[in-house]
Write a structure and sequence with these properties.
With 140 residues, this protein is an alpha+beta fold. The protein has 4 helices and 2 strands; from the N terminus they run αβαβαα. It is extended and about 60 Å long.
């Protein structure tokens, strides 16, 4: 069984291409933060513009991430590939806890759909045995 692919942020948008051109068995999920904890940083201007980033001058990081996400979604939708945007109102303990709980439950449901016991942990007992042996031989 293939492992899921993941991409992170606007810098990894090029990483979307291999799964986007492969089999149609993936959903592309974007995690979107609606309220930033700090004032957004804006891109400055370079006198030399050697990296052609002046086209982004005075754009904030949230604006660039939003445009990258929307552009990626449009490209994937044009190729009839599904995407989702998971919105976190802000990053704090409450909303991260909700996200983790939702992902945990989604993992359980997906495991059941694939006829996999999502609670089975065959490697855990072996890890515990090794850990206990290591702890016996090391100083406190």
């Amino acid at each position: 069984m293939d492992q899921p692919d993941s991409t992170l942020g606007a810098g990894d948008r090029d990483a979307v291409d291999p799964p986007a051109t492969g089999r149609r068995d993936k959903i592309f999920n974007n995690l979107v933060v609606d309220q930033w904890r700090f004032d957004p940083v804006s891109v400055g201007t370079s006198d030399f513009n050697q990296d052609d980033l002046n086209r982004f001058e005075r754009r904030s990081v949230p604006q660039l991430l939003d445009a990258a996400t929307r552009g990626t979604n449009q490209a994937l939708h044009a190729d009839r590939r599904p995407t989702t945007n998971l919105h976190l109102p802000k990053i704090d303990e409450f909303y991260l806890g909700q996200l983790f709980q939702m992902l945990m439950l989604a993992t359980v449901v997906e495991g059941r759909l694939l006829d996999i016991n999502p609670y089975g942990q065959p490697g855990v007992e072996k890890y515990k045995q090794f850990m206990n042996e290591i702890l016996k031989t090391t100083e406190k």
